[in-house]
Design brief:
The structure is a homodimer. Chain A is built from 21 helices and 3 strands. Chain A is mainly alpha-helical. The first copy, chain A, has a 3-stranded mixed sheet with strand order 1-3-2. The longest helix of chain A is centred in the first third of the chain and has 29 residues.
């Protein structure tokens, strides 16, 4: 079958919509990185206008007719082809986008905007009661949103699907339950060892311009180039891009703490490498991004933790780091390795170490489900939060600001988002196992400062596909199984922290 | 009459279109200032998509119907009201935008894109013949474009109108002829004085970071604030904004020459102050920009030349400058003032001094008219250029790169644009006369570092109107006459350079 004109029409329309989504990325990046604060009110209007136009273009009945007309053409193409994948993914997106009435979408945007401001004020005053009505509205709107879709038995499935297509609540429950079972005792055992690890070497006087130089030197080893990347400071780090040739990382510096910029920039670089590695044949299509938040997070976590908090990488980077910061001259590799892997159960998710991080997310996932199903009344939410923090991590929550109000997500209507963080960590270990099996001398390469072989392997086996396949199909391609499996992750964490903390 | 719903509908639609135009500004700014080069191909697509959507939204017949429906409402409002001005300006824009067939617009865009590349290559090789066919196509398209509008007796009027609404070729001819008559002998007299002025103090070793600090200190005196402005380095300086609260200036630094960054940043600041001073009631409307290129340039030239190259400002700034650059310690105000006003007839327009600049533009205006009317064949263009450079400025043009190929404008299809540069200079002197009359102690204020009174006067009398009124109406408001008058400008130049060069 020749390429029908309808296909070119669809591609042209989708390319325009993709352009608008990248314009939105730039508007956000600019607001976070370069815009003077006085630009904020107009910027909100600009983002709303571009978003609305993109939504209108995409949900127009003409797109639906094109998809109908192209059904036969899609069938004639190999499943794995760019063309079949484009039509397939667009049909999925179109069905989702057109199921939610414009009125409900507008209401969600309106409430999110109000709730975002209410949350910021409530957090500043540590006043959960002030945020509660907005959270209630958000939950109520989520229920109406769920009702737009065919019932799956578990309303939370619909929310999950938005961030991690195809993932089911039951599967997350099983995965997280396994994880909890393994990690809670491990954390307790580590806690018993008390101050066995000293991270004093990471605290001190670290001028920010030299931190930047060190981060950039590391990023360049990972694949960063001046011709196609940027690296800027910001308040809340993120990775963004306007095209495959324009990848933008951000990080946050503390003049008295080396860790956040080092591992934060590696983390964002993992996101950037994923997007940068997508096949150029997918540029200006809706396939030109990572397949899901979870798989995306597998890449950021891999570069941050499996590579970045590993011994091998630091055998190469530590001497470089010492050149920038002579006060580290006497710190040996073992001391440094232990310092960057120190476990310290704490109150704040975004400050959590690699081992305890997962439980912050498990807790949020459990509470989200209970709020949605109604088994947990919002009045009881703070207490439920605090009780679980004590039970999972052994910490006492002193106030709502450092407890239930710490994250922005719910105020924005992001319910079902948190699980993807830990799915990413779990998947990173699955992929890592395959990478190590394929390249047994990976760690020896790292010791030489050679990280590009890993990056090339990831590009070939994962990155280049972009969003051609579902998360599960993608996982199948890279690991040989479409199931998220906790085993490798638990094995990795157990081995690592048993050794560092001298557990039996 | 109550505000009809139609008016709100029109405002909403225009606000969206305005958002898109500001998004385009950001896409351009980002490309020039922050984007890594790898983003260029996709950026071109993004700009084209946003531009096309804005054009489609604006030229939709629905806008025409709204304007028709609002005719009575417009009549019911005072001419000077925001509402009447908005409807009036939109009708003018709509009539212009819908007169040009989509096919011709597309062809113009296509040829401009090809011609832009051909020009860059031709300039690099100083090969006019290579650019000639593209220039011919551009001129031919301009003729077709002119034919879309009602005949005015002079086809060039239509082109002028695009950049300087209401300006007629005959008027520009008269103005430029007067200017030429006054300036050519003045330049000749200055040239006879030979090396009477030494600008050696501006050349030397001026570290760029300190140049930046000095420029920023000056800009702050003019009204720049961190909360609403940015100031960045770039290759081809410009001013831009994404809203009234986000004004962005750029400049170019030479480590061995102080003048370009100093006066370039003052120039762009003049543009920025104009846009920043527009009434907030006009935000998100098509009235929220300067009324024309010429009036815009009057503001940049005023801050660059009348303020920035004046004695009074440097009585305040020179001591500051000496702190940053101790090598200037022995340079007295008079020496510095003469240095920054040195006249040196040269080949390149963008490097020209205040006195000779105008003739570069007069020459281009004359050639554009002759090309359009056909009295000058393109084969003869380089020779005509060179002959006039000799006659007006006394310089010999060695090659096309430093002659007829030096500017990008014609390749982009900007014919009728050049005159606005000099109209701006002329108008700046007209406005300056009024400002000095209204604030007789203006120069004394400058000597104290007080520039905000001038800025406030400009805001009140000019900036706040934005594009509510035509250029001529605007000129009437600020100077009491709607005519561009060469007198004040010639008087200013003559007095200034007669004194500096000790002419009789």
């Amino acid at each position: 079958m020749n390429v029908p004109q309808r296909y070119d029409e669809l591609k042209t329309r989708l390319a325009e919509i993709h352009d608008l989504s990248k314009v939105t990325s730039l508007l956000s990046w600019d607001q976070a990185v370069t815009m003077p604060p006085g630009g904020a009110p107009a910027r909100a209007e600009q983002m709303a206008t571009v978003g609305r136009l993109a939504h209108e273009l995409f949900t127009s009945p003409e797109i639906g007719r094109m998809l109908d007309d192209l059904a036969a053409y899609e069938q004639s193409l190999p499943y794995e082809s760019d063309g079949a994948s484009l039509i397939r993914a667009t049909r999925y997106d179109y069905d989702r986008a057109t199921k939610v009435p414009t009125e409900l979408r507008g209401e969600m945007t309106r409430v999110a905007s109000l709730a975002r401001n209410a949350w910021a004020a409530a957090r500043a005053n540590s006043d959960f009661a002030a945020f509660k009505p907005f959270l209630q509205q958000t939950i109520d709107l989520k229920k109406r949103y769920v009702d737009c879709y065919a019932p799956t038995g578990d309303p939370y499935d619909v929310l999950l699907d938005e961030f991690e297509r195809g993932m089911k609540s039951a599967e997350v429950r099983r995965i997280f339950s396994e994880l909890k079972q393994a990690i809670v005792p491990l954390i307790a055992a580590v806690a018993e060892r008390g101050e066995a690890v000293d991270d004093g070497c990471l605290h001190g006087d670290f001028p920010i311009d030299r931190q930047r130089d060190v981060c950039l030197a590391i990023l360049r080893r990972f694949g960063y180039t001046d011709g196609e990347w940027r690296f800027d400071p910001t308040a809340h780090p993120f990775a963004s891009n306007t095209s495959l040739g324009d990848i933008r990382l951000t990080t946050r510096y503390y003049a008295d703490n080396l860790a956040p910029s080092l591992f934060g920039s590696m983390h964002e670089c993992g996101h950037g490498l994923y997007e940068h590695g997508i096949s150029p044949s997918l540029e200006r299509t809706p396939l030109c991004r990572g397949t899901s938040l979870g798989v995306h997070e597998s890449q950021s976590r891999m570069w941050e933790n499996l590579v970045g908090r590993g011994r091998a990488a630091w055998r190469f980077f530590l001497p470089e780091l010492k050149k920038a910061f002579p006060q580290l001259g006497q710190v040996d590799l073992e001391t440094f390795y232990r310092a960057i892997n120190k476990v310290q159960p704490g109150l704040i998710r975004v400050e959590a170490d690699e081992l305890t991080y997962g439980l912050h997310v498990v807790l949020r996932f459990e509470l989200e489900q209970e709020m949605l199903s109604g088994t947990l009344a919002l009045d009881d939410l703070p207490e439920a939060w605090n009780a679980r923090m004590k039970s999972y991590l052994g910490v006492d929550v002193p106030d709502a600001a450092r407890g239930v109000l710490q994250d922005v997500h719910w105020s924005l209507g992001y319910v079902g988002y948190f699980p993807t963080y830990v799915i990413g960590s779990i998947v990173s270990a699955q992929i890592w196992e395959k990478a190590v099996a394929a390249m047994p001398d990976l760690e020896r390469q790292f010791e030489q400062g050679e990280f590009l072989p890993l990056r090339e392997w990831l590009r070939e086996n994962l990155h280049r596909h972009g969003r051609k396949f579902t998360p599960k199909e993608t996982l199948q391609k890279v690991t040989g199984s479409d199931a998220v499996q906790v085993g490798p992750y638990v094995k990795y964490l157990t081995a690592k922290f048993t050794e560092i903390y001298g557990l039996s």
